[in-house]
């Protein structure tokens, strides 16, 4: 019997003129956690999508459990025992958790007997410490919970090989630990995991081997035990030395730009999500916001950017009372917003990259002449953002949805940082970015701070928050637990506050 559960041989996948994978070989041993690493656009998701039957054509051969297979649709992949959790979840928000779990199952019994299905789902959740109420609607779940649901959904379908595409991007440190415990449990039971991640520390911690893709081709497969540090992995991925430090200039405060006073706000179900929140941010400083996902951070950002109405309290931006402003009015005060969910609030997938790059400014003089859009100017503007932020796209006319996840994030961030805003509200700005792009975007945010922008940065990446922020505000159950100076911030000082402990 083969020691490999999966062998992909000489895989080539083209999209028109783009060669996303070229002659790639990947061998996965049974029971291992195997990392797939590469820069944004290197072809990781494409390779996994070939395996999961998302495309009906690719060149090369796939062997699963020693047998040759031709996987042309996800149903075939699932039937073989392959489960995939995509970067962008494949859930239907209006349906309940259990309806999502059984959706597409051929087993009529499960469809008819929802209660029994819910019971099996709950047992599975308990077993892997990932419990979710089967009867709530998916739209009511936090991003972290939705990801747990995706994993449980794959396990419900008896996945032997689980592909996790950047699973920790949306998780808090505690949730990451929980996921790693679950992965260890799964491999202990004989499951195999392919772990796509940009987080080198996590790859070093949890993986047995790592395959590196570069520009669509195989660069190397290495044993993690033989890799000395994350710098070595970064260099292997990029093909040259990568700078992992961010420069920080001394603080130069330029006066209050954002003031939030006694803000209260309810969520869609009428539950209080913000309880008497007050703080301010000055020009020239970065105020980091940390907390376990779902503790009011999203609602706070939505209130500030006009996407949600506060039930009481006051928001002032550059001296203007914006509490009841629309998003457009707030935008016109030169407020930039890197949203939590780039697909929902940051881009229009069916539009081209260049159209997306003028979404917030198309009606300004800069891009129109006599009320008509000037596509020559727009093209020049788009190309310069794509060059600056190294957005990998065949042309600026490409539909945004066809770009890799990291490259979508790069152009959204590029568009928002292009102007020098009075206030930058950045939520998970480096989500899905490779290490080189992360460092670049962090340095750009730092540049905005040094030019006098007030930055409110929400992140679940504690290391990123501690490195970039001047002060860090911790949220728990809709309240501010404390605001800590960067010099006093550490996992030890922030951790208890994130858990709601004040002593
Ligand atoms: N449906 C598609 N149509 C056209 N081009 C595509 C399509 N899907 C992917 N590509 C292109 O294939 C290349 C590889 O993309 P892929 O999503 O596999 O990269 P990735 O390594 O997963 O990147 P990331 O880390 O940003 O998620 C990119 O240049 C991307 O634009």
From TrEMBL:
One of its GO terms (molecular function) is ATP binding. GO terms for cellular component: plasma membrane. It comes from Enterocloster lavalensis. It is found in: Cell membrane. Gene3D superfamilies: P-loop containing nucleotide triphosphate hydrolases. This is Nucleoside ABC transporter ATP-binding protein. InterPro entries: AAA+_ATPase, ABC_carbohydrate_import_ATPase, ABC_transporter-like_ATP-bd, ABC_transporter-like_CS, P-loop_NTPase. Residues 6-240, 258-502 form the ABC transporter domain. Pfam families: ABC_tran.
């Amino acid at each position: 019997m083969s020691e490999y559960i999966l062998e992909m041989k000489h895989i080539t996948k083209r999209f028109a003129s783009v060669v996303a994978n070229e002659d790639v070989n990947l061998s996965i041993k049974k029971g291992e956690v195997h990392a797939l690493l590469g820069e944004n656009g290197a072809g990781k998701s494409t390779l996994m999508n070939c395996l999961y039957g998302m495309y009906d054509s690719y060149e090369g051969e796939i062997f699963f459990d020693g047998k040759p297979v031709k996987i042309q649709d996800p149903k075939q992949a699932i039937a073989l025992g392959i489960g995939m959790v995509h970067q962008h979840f494949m859930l239907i928000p209006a349906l309940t958790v259990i309806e999502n779990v059984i959706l597409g199952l051929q087993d009529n019994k499960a469809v008819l007997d929802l209660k029994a299905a819910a019971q099996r789902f709950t047992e599975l959740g308990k077993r892997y410490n990932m419990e979710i109420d089967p009867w709530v609607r998916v739209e009511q779940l936090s991003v972290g919970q939705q990801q747990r649901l995706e994993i449980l959904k794959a396990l419900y379908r008896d996945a032997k090989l689980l592909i996790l595409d950047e699973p920790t991007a949306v998780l808090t440190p505690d949730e990451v630990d929980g996921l790693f415990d679950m992965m260890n449990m799964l491999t202990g039971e004989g499951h195999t995991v392919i772990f796509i991640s940009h987080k080198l520390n996590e790859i070093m911690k949890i993986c047995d081997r790592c395959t590196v893709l570069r520009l669509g081709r195989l660069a190397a497969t290495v044993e993690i035990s033989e890799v000395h540090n994350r710098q070595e992995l970064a260099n292997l991925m990029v093909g040259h030395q990568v700078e992992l430090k961010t420069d920080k200039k001394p603080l130069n405060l330029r006066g209050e730009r954002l003031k939030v006073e006694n803000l209260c706000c309810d969520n869609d179900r009428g539950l209080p999500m913000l309880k008497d929140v007050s703080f301010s941010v000055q020009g020239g400083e970065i105020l980091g916001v940390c907390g376990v996902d779902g503790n009011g951070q999203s609602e706070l950002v939505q209130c500030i950017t006009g996407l949600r109405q506060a039930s009481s309290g006051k928001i002032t931006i550059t001296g203007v009372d914006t509490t009841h402003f629309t998003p457009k009015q707030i935008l016109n005060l030169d407020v930039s917003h890197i949203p939590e969910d780039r697909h929902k609030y940051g881009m229009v997938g069916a539009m081209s990259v260049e159209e997306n790059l003028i979404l917030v400014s198309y009606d300004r003089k800069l891009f129109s002449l006599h009320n008509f859009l000037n596509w020559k100017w727009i093209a020049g503007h788009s190309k310069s953002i794509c060059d600056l932020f190294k957005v990998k796209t065949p042309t600026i006319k490409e539909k945004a949805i066809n770009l890799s996840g990291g490259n979508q994030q790069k152009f959204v961030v590029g568009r928002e940082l292009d102007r020098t805003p009075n206030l930058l509200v950045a939520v998970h700005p480096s989500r899905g970015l490779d290490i080189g792009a992360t460092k670049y975007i962090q340095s750009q945010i730092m540049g905005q701070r040094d030019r006098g922008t007030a930055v409110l940065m929400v992140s679940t990446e504690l290391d990123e928050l501690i490195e970039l922020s001047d002060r860090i505000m911790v949220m728990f159950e809709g309240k501010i637990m404390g605001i800590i100076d960067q010099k006093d911030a550490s996992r030890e000082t922030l951790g208890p506050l994130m858990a709601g402990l004040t002593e």
